[in-house]
Design goal:
With 225 residues, the protein is of the alpha+beta class. It has one domain: Sandwich (Immunoglobulin-like). Helices cover 18% and strands 27% of the residues. It starts with a helix and ends with a strand.
Length: 225
């Protein structure tokens, strides 16, 4: 009888181990391109709470530059909400509002008006990728120009050094806009998005707060060399 009881116990244990393995696999983090991504199904996403919790600020370690220098500006997007979100950084052509998200600087200057130089670029736009969606936990920050890999994120052509060839005071304000539910407006050209991850990209896209936020004003002075 003891042997039979042991056999029943072992069989039951094997059954429960199998059930636990299935449950654990459903809730395990997903591995994509060698990156572990949190399971977006674990937390309910409230778009309005996420939008109301977004803020943005810009700063610079220096207030005085020399003409011909590129200003070094730090952009910080804060997730002040109580929920995790996903944010997309500056994609290829985002800095010129060629696709969402828009990552644009508003720049004015005195005594001479700000004139952005013409910077030619390739007409192609990199495909929208899983790696472009960055997980931003509640009460943390995000840099839209951070380096995630060799394909992103991109810098802003408005901060190129040749745009600051005249002395004066320059006022900067950064505008970040993800305010489009049309994923076509986020895609690259001609490749669109990663074909092997279409479903996951669409799921991540639904977790991106759709909003337009503007930073504080930042004054920098450019002096003659």
């Amino acid at each position: 009888m003891k042997i039979n009881a042991f056999r029943v116990t072992a069989a039951s244990l094997s059954f429960f181990v199998g059930v636990f393995a299935v449950i654990a696999s459903d809730y395990a983090p997903r591995l994509v391109n060698h990156q572990v991504l949190p399971d977006t199904n674990l937390n309910y996403f409230d778009p309005q709470k996420a939008i109301s919790g977004l803020s943005i600020s810009i700063s610079s370690d220096r207030t005085i530059y020399r003409v011909g220098e590129a200003p070094e500006i730090k952009v910080t997007i804060s997730n002040n909400s109580d929920q995790d979100i996903y944010i997309v950084g500056c994609l290829d052509h985002s800095d010129i509002q060629g696709r969402y998200p828009y990552c644009d600087y508003e720049i004015s200057s005195i005594p001479n008006p700000f004139e952005e130089k013409v910077h030619y670029r390739c007409g192609n736009k990199n495909a929208l990728r899983v790696a472009d969606f960055v997980h931003v936990p509640a009460h943390t920050t995000f840099d839209p120009f951070m380096k995630v890999d060799q394909y992103g994120f991109f810098g802003s052509s408005k901060l190129f050094a040749d745009n600051f060839s005249k002395p004066g005071k320059y006022m900067f304000r950064f505008v970040y806009s993800s305010d489009s539910n049309n994923i076509d407006k986020w895609m690259g050209w001609p490749s669109g998005m990663e074909r092997e991850h279409v479903d996951q990209i669409q799921d991540l896209f639904s977790k991106v707060p759709k909003a337009t936020i503007k930073s504080n004003n930042l004054m920098l002075e450019f002096k003659p060399r």
